[in-house]
């Protein structure tokens, strides 16, 4: 079974959704098929650049004030921690472009362990408050995924992979993907949002039976923010 995942490394529900997908697969037990996962880029904030802006400030402008943002982040953090994820929105997260991170993940998909690179980037942003557009943060993530340090530095210093990422982002838009995480199972079933593990397991079972399940709505992130 192939699962294509559209995601962004600064989307909290994408990390939560990744954990729930793993839990959903585990619920299948011995019935779980061999699964091949492919990661695809989604730019939640395509207008962001490499200049770091305090995340809380950026969100306050978008959502109407610091109090509202504090409530949103607290709720998301509580949900993530219930899944065993070390979210800490008091670590000074920043708003930056994630284009270099997606370029690195595309490189890792070809030459290393893309899952480990993605996990390292999620952890850097949500648990440590590090700048995921910073070269050193990206290099560390690449090395964690088995990439050669000099290879990563040369790659990031060029514009290699940028057109590929932009093409894949455009492909997602053409497919009607407007929020992440979006999981596409065997190219025929789209499941959007951080579904509970039980719902994911049910979708996988139905996909194995060649049915067309309809998954319930679940929290996701889009250009206008996260549910």
Explain the layout of strands and helices.
Blueprint: E1 2-7, H1 12-27, E2 36-41, E3 53-54, H2 55-63, H3 66-82, E4 94-95, H4 99-111, H5 114-127, H6 135-144, H7 149-157, H8 162-174, E5 182-185, E6 189-192, H9 197-208, E7 221-222, E8 225-226
Parallel strand pairs: 1-2
Antiparallel strand pairs: 1-5, 3-4, 5-6, 7-8
Helix pairs in contact: 1-9, 2-3, 4-5, 5-6, 6-7
CATH H-level superfamily: Glutaredoxin
**What is the CATH first-level class name?**
Alpha Beta
SSE order, one letter for each helix or strand: EHEEHHEHHHHHEEHEE
CATH level-3 fold name: Glutaredoxin
* β-strand amount: 5-15%
How does the major sheet shape up?
4 strands, mixed
What is the number of domains?
Answer: 1
What is the molecular shape? Answer: globular
Protein structure class: alpha+beta
Which architecture name does CATH use? 3-Layer(aba) Sandwich
> Considering DSSP H and I runs of 4 or more, what fraction of the residues is helical?
40-55%
Terminal Cα span: 29 Å
Count of helices?
9
Radius of gyration: 17 Å
Could you tell me the mean pLDDT? 94
Strand order of the largest sheet: 2-1-5-6
* Strand element count: 8
Sequence stretches where pLDDT stays below 50 over 5 or more residues? none
């Amino acid at each position: 079974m192939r699962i294509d995942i559209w995601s962004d490394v600064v989307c909290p529900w994408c990390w939560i959704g990744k954990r729930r997908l793993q839990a959903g697969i585990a619920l299948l037990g011995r019935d779980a098929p061999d699964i091949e996962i492919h990661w695809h880029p989604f730019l939640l904030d395509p207008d962001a650049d490499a200049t770091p802006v305090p995340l809380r400030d950026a969100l306050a402008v978008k959502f109407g004030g610091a109090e509202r943002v504090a409530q949103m982040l607290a709720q998301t953090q509580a949900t993530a921690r219930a899944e065993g994820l070390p979210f800490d929105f008091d670590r000074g997260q920043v708003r930056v472009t994630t284009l270099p991170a997606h370029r690195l993940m595309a490189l890792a998909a070809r030459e290393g362990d893309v899952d480990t690179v993605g996990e390292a980037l999620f952890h850097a942003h949500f648990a440590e408050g590090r700048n995921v557009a910073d070269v050193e943060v990206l290099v560390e993530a690449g090395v964690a995924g088995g990439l050669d340090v000099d290879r990563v530095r040369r790659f990031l210093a060029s514009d290699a992979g940028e057109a590929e990422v932009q093409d894949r982002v455009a492909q997602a838009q053409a497919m009607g993907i407007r929020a992440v995480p979006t999981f596409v199972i065997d190219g025929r079933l789209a499941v959007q949002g951080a579904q509970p593990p039980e719902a994911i397991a049910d979708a996988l079972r139905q996909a194995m039976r060649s049915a067309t399940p309809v998954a319930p709505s679940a929290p996701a992130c889009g250009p206008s923010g996260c549910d």
